[in-house]
Amino acid sequence: MFDITIIGAGVTGCAIARELSKYNLKTCVIEKEIDVASGTSKANSGIVHAGEDPMPGTLKAKLNVRGNQMFDKLQEELEFPFKRNGSLVLCFDKDKMGELEELRERGINNGVPDTMRVINREEVLKIEPNISEHVVGALTLPTGGIVCPYELTIALAENASTNGVEFKLETQVNGIEKREDRYVLQTSKGDIETKIVINAAGVFGDDLNNMVSEKKYHIIPRRGEYCLFDKSVGNTVSRTLFQLPTKMGKGVLVTPTVDGNLIIGPSANNMENKEDVSTTREIMESILEKSKMSIKEVPMRQIITSFAGLRAHEVDGDFIIGEAEDAKNFINVIGIESPGLTSAPAIGEMVRDIIVEKLSPEKNENFNPIRKSIPKFREMNNDERREIIKKDKGYGKIVCRCETVTEGEIREAIRRPIGAKTLDGVKRRTRAGMGRCQSGFCSNRIVDILAEELNISREEVTKFGRKSNLLVENIKDSIQ
């Protein structure tokens, strides 16, 4: 029996897992997909918000600011891509410049450092020359940042795993039963007994809560669609550009990614299907049109892909974190939408404190906060490259030309704790396949490496698990 079972291996669940690994607790993370970061955590803006937007007094406000403050130390310990590039909230109407000052005051009330300034168009142009003619002023947010959301999640998960947390992937929770001093989770791979359940199941969080509590929640999956641009236009802007809401809506953001691309989005459409991450031409055109309010020219010819993610919007609006009133030891962590990514480290602390108060566990004296990332060949100088090739000849073989990813990196991604088992798993850990050709060149070789490392046939290799097999059969074998 486990002391703690966390349902959901997104950034929130993995942040909680890492915090709990600091204590002598038998902790387990259950995830229905084949990999961590397979839901909302793989498809969002990758923004570390400053904290000026949430209403003061809400959990969103408190945890946003605290989470933001934690990223520098986390990056130092876990080696994931993160940069404090700063943000701007753009205003397009001189009569609304006062709203920027109101946002600044709200940020101060939330605990954002008092480094924010309201600046005019001329000052904006000095720091962002490519803003559009519509911009009349902006609010500067120096503590804003950008992060790779799935690499953050993977880093948290790997560190939790090496510190003793057990991960059960491809394990679907089908039912929850309360028995005296424990819960029994009925899963696709058998029953799991646990003293405490932490419900961090994203858009499915309401379903799990509603299995055990009379207090019913309703999570609306809110789809956000994005356009991703080639690195050749990644320097269109240096900061994240938000739009001050107008009568036409909240607008879209324009931002560089931490890996050097440009991203525009998202949309916000309520859905019924909790797994519908399709993209539409109509929404893409709308996003691109709205972005013209922020920048002079949208580099349409440099779009390399589009994608969508689902946000877990709870109808009451704020994060829901705490023990269900009528289900002792069932801890909800649901409705974690924006600024959920920024807040995740602080949510981990908050839930840790709840568990420590309940169980009074001893600290794990062997806890190691350090996790080393996979060496990135593209970031090395020639001396470093020669040295690593001496140790591993696989680093001398380029597999992904667009992103300069080597065979050595791919094999390490598969062999690591909670290693990659799919094409997408390799992609998120190494960026192989994320370049301009979108894996048109490298996918065949990655399939071969996955088959070799996992000791399976090429036909068994999938893109993201389930039935996403890439190959059907060997043509030579099928011809009689």
TrEMBL record:
Look up the domain of life of the source: Bacteria
* Residue ranges constituting the FAD dependent oxidoreductase domain according to the UniProt record: 3-353
Gene3D superfamilies (alphabetical): BFD-like [2Fe-2S]-binding domain, D-Amino Acid Oxidase, subunit A, domain 2, FAD/NAD(P)-binding domain
Q: Which Pfam families match?
A: DAO (PF01266), Fer2_BFD (PF04324)
InterPro entries assigned: BFD-like_2Fe2S-bd_dom, BFD-like_2Fe2S-bd_dom_sf, FAD-dep_OxRdtase, FAD/NAD-bd_sf, G3P_Oxidase/Oxidoreductase
Cited CDD domains: GlpA-like_Fer2_BFD-like
BFD-like [2Fe-2S]-binding domain location: 398-452
PANTHER family the UniProt entry points to = GLYCEROL 3-PHOSPHATE OXIDASE, GLYCEROL-3-PHOSPHATE DEHYDROGENASE
Identify this protein by name.
NAD(P)/FAD-dependent oxidoreductase
Query: What is the scientific name of the source organism?
Result: Clostridium brassicae
